[in-house]
Amino acid sequence: MRYSVLVGILLIVFALGLGACQAATPAPPTEAPAEPTPVCPTAVPCPPVVEPVVKQVPYEAQWAASGHNKTDALAFNFWNESEAKAIPVECAKCHSEGGFLDFLGEDGSAAGMVDNPAPLGTTVTCITCHNASTAKMTSVRFPSGAEVTGLGGEAVCMQCHQGMASKVSVDEAIEKAGLTGDLDKPNPELGFVNIHYYAAAATLYGTITKGGYEYEGKRYDFKNDHVEGFDTCIGCHDSHTLELKLEACATCHQGVASVEDVRKIRTAGSEADYDGDGDVKEGVASEIEGLQEMLFSAIQAYAKEVAGQAIGYNPQAYPYFFADTNGDGTIDESEATFPNRYQNWTGRLLRAAYNYQTSKKDPGAYAHGGKYIIQLLYDSIEDLNTKISSPVSLASARRIDPGHFAGSEESFRHWDEEGEVPGFCARCHTASGLPTYLKNGVNIAAAPSNGLNCASCHDNLATFTRFEVGAVTFPSGAKLDFGDPDANLCLNCHQGRESTVSIDRAIQAAGVQNDQVSEALTFRNPHYFAAGATLFGDEAKGAYQFGGKQYVGRFLHVEKYSTCIQCHRAHVLEVNIEECSSCHTTVNTVEDLRAMRMNTQGDFDGDGDATEGLAGEVETMMEKLYAAILDYAATKAQAPIVYDPHVYPYYFNDTNANGQVDEGEAAFPNAYKSWTPNLLRAAYNYQWAQKDPGAYAHNAKYILQILYDSIQAVGGSVSGMTRP
């Protein structure tokens, strides 16, 4: 029994264990369904090969042979042996592809500066100049801080061809060395300031960008306008080969077929003898070379006498100026080393040497802005001359061009600060003004220009024919005509801006009589060089003609010599003296002209000399008129007056009544305001005679008549004088 129970218990335990095992063991897997056999898609044909956007890079061959891709040039290899094996930040902009793209911000960095050194091994490539940033570029900032705006494609060129220094840099260096107060004291801490190379844009833009060292108190030429279409980098140079467009030059400058021919060019507006060697036919390039030699002589003399160390120059070795240790005037290979660099710089010497280098490192300066460079060289010589024992003679040298082309002078620089010449001045004070007026009969405001240019008077620059002009309207309303379309051209500007008519209108509007003071009256300026109106006399009524008086009309002189261009050389503006001497055998100079009297009889000025030249008669009568004006203002107008021919509006209060222009008196706030009609008329005529210095030749009788009548109008004595 007990055995049976035990067996039963064992069977139960065995059964439970067997069940547990069966529960833990997974069921045998079922057979997985067979995967479907993949079906390959239908093959899609490869797309056709897309044609490249550019099969051949335009101008690649021209660029490849240019200086911008001269792979062995020092400009792209100078840093190859440097420790950094990279182009430094201050050089990378213009000496590598990556540096310029960094400057533009095309690499993702901030634009307007180079952030990182550039890798070696690149040149100025296609992408350097052709990218999204350069396509939008219209302005360039120069080392002086000046910004030139409104540019076209030339803006890219000007980013690098602007130099790396300016007048500002030189002044800062002198100030840092503590030499501002003593420009002749050497200081070893002052080093040479280098403008860098090929700063053509700085030369081209002249005083706008102040690339050269400009001396205080001097005026300098503006941008060299040349003529429309040939006044930018890419207007004159092929942008890929960099070569001059010689065929285009030859359109006007006939016979030009090489760069050497260009160096020989001398335009009709550049007929001054700049270097004083007596040759006014040589090219402007040679004129500059002559001045460079003169300046270097002055530099050497100053360095030895004032700075205390002889100096020499080597254009191939940095920093260019070295101590001339053997005093032979040249720098040989052993002297042209950095340890032998010149170290006796004074402020005055640095300014001159900077300008010398500026002229040397732009080999095309004679074309880019030759007159600006000439002014820099001339002024540097003049400044050094003040301190050396044997000054370099400038007696025969010339700094400024004849008036029509004197781009540095007030007649063209007056509006620089405003940035535009008003419409009523633009006709005669901008290069484009007269052609605009002749075409439209009116002028609008125009940008300041660097004097007149060929296109101002010539309607065809291949044949150089002049604009043909009929009768010209003068300020009085008179329409006058030489009967010669060429000569009439001059009358458009040389006619003055006022007349008897405008003076009478001003007096009538003020509502006062001859000797009554009126604050409503102001001085009316006839303007300058109104030779045409003087010449036509009573027909033009340019000067003030008093009622009840008779005045002579046009001065005809003799046939062939009775118009502007028959008596004056149109470009240099000088009188054709050699033509005068064919009749006036004693005339060889302008001074001889002033002594001429012809058959005019009478002691006009009452000085007892009836044989002196007409110029002398006019001058004495002017002196008597001025004395009468001073007396009238003090007694009749009860307000002393004084005159300064150089300061607008010319007549000022004589605050201390001493009859002299004292410091502070010739200023616009002190302008004379106690005008009476008679005082205004006389002062106007005095100014007319002052501002036409050739009046004695243009129409002596007319100018003597108005001076005589003006003396009478303000109560002056004409005793002993004769009215023609």
Number of strands: 10
Q: What is the terminal-to-terminal distance?
A: 182 Å
* Largest sheet descriptor: 2 strands, antiparallel
Distinct helical segment count: 29
Strand order of the largest sheet: 1-2
Backbone shape: globular
Mean pLDDT: 93
Question: How large is the radius of gyration?
Answer: 40 Å
- Looking at how many chains there are and whether they match, the oligomeric state comes to single chain
In helices, the fraction of residues equals 25-40%
Kindly name the structural category. Answer: mainly alpha
- Domain module tally: 4
Beta-strand portion reads under 5%
Task: Indicate the low-confidence ranges by residue numbers.
Answer: 1-27
Descriptive key words:
37% helix, single chain, disordered N terminus, 4 domains, mainly alpha, 724 residues, two-stranded antiparallel sheet, globular, two-stranded antiparallel ribbon
TL;DR of this structure?
By secondary structure, this protein is mainly alpha-helical. The chain is built from 29 helices and ten strands. The strands form five sheets. It has a two-stranded antiparallel ribbon. Strands 3-4 form a two-stranded antiparallel sheet.
Account of the 3D structure:
- With 724 residues, the protein is mainly α.
- The protein has four domains: 59-136, no CATH class; 164-309 and 344-405, no CATH class; 409-466, no CATH class; 500-639 and 674-713, no CATH class.
- It contains 29 helices and ten strands.
- It has helices at 2-24, 60-64, 74-77, 89-95, 97-104, 126-129, 132-136, 154-160, 167-176, 200-205, 233-236, 246-252, 259-263, 284-307, 347-360, 365-385, 410-413, 423-429, 433-440, 454-457, 485-491, 500-510, 531-536, 564-567, 577-580, 590-594, 614-635, 677-691, 695-713, and strands spanning 140-141, 147-148, 311-313, 321-323, 458-460, 465-466, 472-473, 479-480, 641-643, 651-653.
- The strands form five sheets. It has a two-stranded antiparallel ribbon. Strands 3-4 form a two-stranded antiparallel sheet. Strands 5-6 form a two-stranded antiparallel sheet.
- β5 (458-460) and β6 form a beta hairpin.
- The protein is globular and about 130 Å long.
- The N and C termini lie far apart (182 Å).
